[in-house]
Specification:
Elements lengths: L2 H18 L1 H25 L3 E7 L5 E6 L5 H8 L3 H15 L3 H18 L3 H20 L2 H35 L8 H9 L3 H23 L4 H4 L2
Antiparallel strand pairs: 1-2
Helix pairs in contact: 1-2, 1-7, 2-3, 2-4, 3-8, 4-7, 4-9, 5-6, 5-7, 7-9, 8-9
Pfam families: Peptidase_M50B
Keywords: Membrane, Transmembrane, Transmembrane helix
Protein name: M50 family metallopeptidase
Length: 232
Amino acid sequence: MAAQQLSTLVAPLVALVLVAHGGLWRICRTAVTIAHEGGHAIAAVLTGRRLSGIRLHSDTSGVTVSVGRTRGPGMVFTSFAGYPAPALVGLLAAWLVTERFTRVLLWAGVLFLLATLVYVRNVFGVLAVLVTGGIVGAVAWYGSPPPQRLFCAALAWFLLLGGLRAVRELAAGRRWQLRRGRRELDSDADQLARLTGLPAWFWVGVFTLVALGALVLGGWWLLGDLAPLLLR
């Protein structure tokens, strides 16, 4: 079996272990949170809002603060962008891996993390971004092409799977709070419900469809190298 095909097999297994194992997920989930808050931040900038700051917490939650109109399309897009972001970044990563642009992916990741660092406003957040950026930067600087490809493929799978798990946790967390009588929830889905009049479960469903679609398409791309084996 060629090294490239071996990498194609190993990468999703590594990512699946990181996402499925509770202890590993609690450690690695911060990377999904960084992508989530980055989605909010990019959407805020694109819609003309002033980005004030990002905070990342040790419980893997986060918050992005932007200044602008409290209602309207800009606020809706900013509130919406968080949960789809990890899956869509994973989809972009999958395409770059498939097209053999792994070094582009790695250095783009470093630049994104540096830009994020400028807006982080708490100590844990700074440490989380620095550690994540250090890992990505070390692979970009010191890695040879095969390890870089394996790392990038595993990263793409992790974001695709992790984005879906994050949405599942959102749904489970909302159900848990509602069963305990809470009615004023503050998740992204509930904020979107207040902004648009559409129920929060609708937005959870949209997040789920985006994450599932990205996983199916990204997985199809990433597993493409196995086609010669399957056709033998």
